[in-house]
Structure formats: structure tokens, C-alpha cells
């Protein structure tokens, strides 16, 4: 609380009588509907799964607008702006962002951010359709519309047909990965210019269309697939299980796999009457929306991951780390490497540099530009050294494979950030490992204006994780150490993430 302010007093508390301000009463009813939906359809006790009281701030003001436009979830409460109080779908949407913080913790950027937005729309609309909230418009013609209760902004998105332009700020979203409406943002081309955090409110359409195909009653023919809707109660259970299994850096192919495996799990455990026939509908919806395919634009596409082992051989792990240790674990760190918390309750959760972005598990190692260093020269070099010493065996093939994502500064074609992998033999001098890469190796040269030379390394943006692989076989017979070196110039979302590093032989 700032000095001069008075403490907040609740306008209405649980079980209390209606008050004069309609926004308060509507929000009270909407939160009640959202709570009951979570309990009944997901089996979840409130946002944190542990009964946290639901709180909302209505007619919220900031320094410039009063009330603010829009609404959002702020760590532990729902902030309700102008013309927003009316919609129970909107209330459940914002609460779902809170649930995500406590579960998959999907990072609010590119495809993981689009999936985050899609989950919020899906649970928002599921709740809307199974609940009759007084003061909201529940006519069947509004089914699968999001935000239809807003008087001025009107519905903003259609889950049935995301390509429809709706409402005052009408925009079109993709209904499949190859849709011409797939949003290639300025951030896809230059991560220094975030554009809807990589199109999160647009590319949510792919997930929304799949949810409609899966949940809406009736037979839907779309993109060559014939899907029989399984209804909201079954779909809600499947989506909730998916939400608990995805990593924070999940992309659409991960959502595709999680939908089919979650459905199979629930059908095997006889949950909510889900059957293998229902799971066939889920798989058809995944195929129809092309979730496993990359978007058509190379600027938005992910880099296909490196293979693990040649066909007909399998991996024997020599050493591995997933960065799940909240401390530095088996790493020696200098400079700006950090391991963000596994749970995303930071109010600035849209700032990716403060958020976990993990390919597996809950954590990953991140080299980033902290905001308080933005305007301070010079560029920064950070080193993470794996304490584990590898003994590379003779007479077999040894690989090092790791997951990485990058959002590194590029300015007018100049790479202002780069990442390097280095090794040393038997405690000798560190050497560049660029020549050892077999898959997804270095991409470009650092600009010499950074003051760290013009060495070729990992540059630019990947919009998500990919896996790179090096062949360590030429180092056989030596004690090998590995380190990651990042040079990141000022740019507010410059970052390099590492996860799931493994050294292994294939045989
Ligand atoms: Ca409603
Ligand atoms: Ca709605
Ligand atoms: Ca991890
Ligand atoms: Zn949202």
C-alpha cells in the first residue's frame, strides 16, 4: 500500500448481501460460477487446487485509465476493467490463467502462450455453457463465443470458427496450423519487437478449434476429418489432465500428444465414462487442426529436433541433467545464468525473462538480460560449466544432446547476442565445440560491435525449444568437460534457455 492510500475494504464477501454497484454483484456471481465449474467438472478446489479464496478488484484503475480496459489475472486476484464484469466466460478465462500458474505454468510467449490463451478460452466457454449465471446472455446462439456479454466490445473470439472476425476489434485467428490466418508476428522475425507476445491471442485459435471439435455435441466435418463431439464433461476432464502434464515451454505438437495420451489414460482408468471411441474423436480433432505440423511461414516455424540415435540403436546414458535442482546443481555458473521458479505467480508473468521456460520437468537454465542492466554497457558474457566430467569411451559412438531455445537480439541483421558450446580435454584449454555438431549447430556470427569478437555461434530466435546434438566420438579416451557461454547484449527479451542435457552412447 502506498502512503496516503486507505486499506482496501471488500465491497462484498462470500455469503454477503448484494450491494449497490452492479459490477460487484455480477463479478461475485461469476466467481461463484467459476468456482463451481472447477469443483464439479475438473475436481479442483479453486485456482490453486487448495481452496484459495477467489478475490476480484472491479472498476480497477491505473495511472491513465479509470476503469482500465480489459481484465487480467494478477498473481492472486482477478482485475476487472471497463465493460468486463458482465461475462462469466471472461471471469473463468482469467481464473484459468491463475490455474495455469499452478499447473503447467505455460510461458506466455509464442506457441506455449497461444496454448495458455486457448486453455483460458476453453475453460471459460465450458463454464459458460454448463452454468446459468443471472445477468449473462446464455442463448444457444452465443454458444462457443467468447466475451458475448460485453456491451461495447461484443464477443471477441469464436471457438467454433476462429477465422470469423468478431466484435468491435474484429480479428481473424487460425483454425489449423496451415491456416492463412496463422499469425506471424513481428516478434517471429525480430524477438526485440514483441507483438502480442508472439501472437498468443491469435494462434490460440488452433487449440480453440480442436476443443470445439472435441467438445461440441454433433458431427463435425472439418479438414477431411469427421469428429463426433464427446461433450463438455468428458472434454473438461481430458483438458484438465493435459494441463497438468504439459511443460511450460509446450508447443502445439506437445498439446497434440498430451491430448491423445491423457484421453487414453482417462479411458483406461474409466474416468467420466471416457471410452476409446471418444479418444478416436480427440485424435481426429488433432489431425484436423494439423497440431503436429509446423506453421507454413518459415519465420514462425520451429526447428525440428535432432535425432537421438540412428535407427535400430538405442541410447545408454553416461550423464544427464534436467536443471530441476532449484540451486545450481551440477553446474558452476558465472554471469547472468539463472533457474526461474517452477511456479509462475510473478505479477509480471508476461515477461518471459522472469518466467520458467522448461522443455521437460519444471525448470530450465536461462541466460538472460535483466531489466536493470538494459542500459548499462558493455554486453555481458555468462558461463555455465557442467561439473560432470565425461569419460568418452572408445569403439562406440558417443553423443551429447541438449534442448535449447533462444530469443537473442538481432538488430538490422546484426546478431547482438550469441551462445557457444565449448569443451576441454583432460583439464586443458577450453575449445569451441562448433565442429562437433551433427544436428542443429551454430547459426550465425556475433556482431563485432558487441566487443566479444565475431565468432560464429547460436544466434537469433527459435520461438520454442529445439534439440541440438554433437558427436563426441573424436574425443574418445579423454576426460571431457562441457560448458555453455552466452554473450547477450542489451535487449529486453534476449535470452538463451537450456534443458535436458544428455551424454550417451548409441548401440
Ligand atoms: Ca454466461
Ligand atoms: Ca461465451
Ligand atoms: Ca528441466
Ligand atoms: Zn487471457
Automatic annotation (TrEMBL):
Residues 104-267 form the Peptidase M4 C-terminal domain. InterPro entries: Peptidase_M4, Peptidase_M4/M1_CTD_sf, Peptidase_M4_C_domain, Peptidase_M4_domain, Zinc_Metalloprotease_M4. GO terms for cellular component: extracellular region. Its cofactor is Zn(2+). One of its GO terms (biological process) is proteolysis. This is Neutral metalloproteinase. CDD domains: M4_TLP. One of its GO terms (molecular function) is metalloendopeptidase activity. It comes from the Bacteria. It is found in: Secreted. Belongs to the peptidase M4 family. It comes from Paractinoplanes tereljensis. Residues 30-100 form the Peptidase M4 domain. Its EC number is 3.4.24.-. Extracellular zinc metalloprotease. The active site is at residues 94, 201. Keywords: Hydrolase, Metal-binding, Metalloprotease, Protease, Secreted, Zinc. The keyword Zinc-finger does not apply.
Amino acid at each position: 500500500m502506498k502512503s496516503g492510500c486507505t486499506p482496501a475494504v471488500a465491497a462484498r464477501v462470500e455469503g454477503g448481501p448484494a450491494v449497490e454497484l452492479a459490477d460487484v454483484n455480477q463479478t461475485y456471481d461469476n466467481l461463484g460460477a467459476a468456482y463451481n465449474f472447477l469443483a464439479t467438472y475438473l475436481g479442483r478446489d479453486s485456482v490453486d487446487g487448495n481452496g484459495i479464496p477467489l478475490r476480484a478488484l472491479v472498476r480497477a484503475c491505473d495511472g491513465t485509465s479509470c476503469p482500465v480496459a480489459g481484465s487480467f489475472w494478477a498473481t492472486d486476484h482477478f482485475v476487472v476493467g471497463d465493460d468486463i464484469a458482465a461475462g462469466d466466460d471472461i471471469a473463468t478465462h482469467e481464473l484459468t490463467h491463475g490455474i495455469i500458474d499452478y499447473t503447467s505454468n505455460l510461458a506466455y510467449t509464442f506457441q506455449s502462450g497461444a496454448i495458455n490463451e486457448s486453455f483460458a478460452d476453453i475453460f471459460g466457454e465450458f463454464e459458460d455453457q454448463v452454468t446459468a449465471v443471472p445477468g449473462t446472455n446464455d442463448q444457444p446462439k452465443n454458444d462457443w463465443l467468447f466475451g458475448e456479454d460485453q456491451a461495447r466490445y461484443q464477443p471477441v473470439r469464436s471457438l467454433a470458427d476462429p477465422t470469423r472476425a468478431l466484435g468491435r476489434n474484429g480479428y481473424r485467428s487460425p483454425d489449423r496450423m496451415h491456416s492463412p490466418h496463422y499469425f506471424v508476428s513481428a516478434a517471429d522475425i525480430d524477438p526485440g519487437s514483441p507483438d502480442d507476445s508472439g501472437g498468443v491471442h491469435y494462434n490460440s485459435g488452433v487449440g480453440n478449434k480442436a476443443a470445439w471439435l472435441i467438445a461440441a455435441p454433433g458431427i463435425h466435418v472439418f479438414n477431411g476429418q469427421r469428429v463426433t463431439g464427446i461433450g463438455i464433461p468428458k472434454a473438461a476432464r481430458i483438458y484438465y489432465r493435459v494441463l497438468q502434464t504439459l511443460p511450460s515451454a509446450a508447443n502445439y505438437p506437445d498439446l497434440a500428444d498430451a491430448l491423445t495420451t491423457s484421453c487414453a489414460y482417462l479411458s483406461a482408468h474409466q474416468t467420466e465414462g471416457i471410452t476409446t471411441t471418444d479418444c478416436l474423436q480427440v485424435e481426429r480433432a488433432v489431425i484436423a487442426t494439423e497440431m503436429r505440423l509446423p506453421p507454413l511461414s518459415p519465420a514462425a516455424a520451429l526447428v525440428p529436433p535432432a535425432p537421438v540415435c540412428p535407427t535400430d540403436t538405442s541410447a545408454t546414458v553416461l550423464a544427464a541433467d534436467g536443471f530441476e535442482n532449484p540451486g545450481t546443481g551440477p553446474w558452476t555458473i558465472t554471469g547472468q545464468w539463472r533457474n526461474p521458479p517452477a511456479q509462475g505467480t510473478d505479477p509480471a508473468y508476461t515477461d518471459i525473462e522472469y518466467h520458467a521456460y522448461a522443455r521437460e520437468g519444471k525448470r530450465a537454465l536461462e541466460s538472460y538480460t535483466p531489466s536493470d542492466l538494459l542500459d548499462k554497457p558493455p554486453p555481458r558474457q555468462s558461463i555455465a560449466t557442467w561439473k560432470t566430467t565425461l569419460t568418452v569411451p572408445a569403439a562406440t559412438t558417443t553423443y551429447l544432446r541438449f534442448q535449447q531455445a533462444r530469443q537473442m537480439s538481432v538488430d538490422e541483421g546484426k546478431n547482438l547476442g550469441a551462445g557457444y558450446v565449448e569443451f576441454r580435454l583432460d583439464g586443458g584449454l577450453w575449445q569451441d565445440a562448433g565442429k562437433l555438431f551433427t544436428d542443429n549447430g551454430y547459426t550465425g556470427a556475433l556482431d563485432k560491435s558487441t566487443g566479444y569478437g565475431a565468432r560464429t555461434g547460436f544466434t537469433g530466435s527459435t520461438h520454442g525449444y529445439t534439440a541440438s546434438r554433437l558427436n563426441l566420438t573424436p574425443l574418445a579416451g579423454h576426460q571431457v568437460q562441457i560448458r555453455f557461454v552466452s554473450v547477450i547484449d542489451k535487449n529486453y527479451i534476449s535470452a538463451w534457455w537450456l534443458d535436458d542435457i544428455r551424454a550417451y552412447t548409441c548401440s
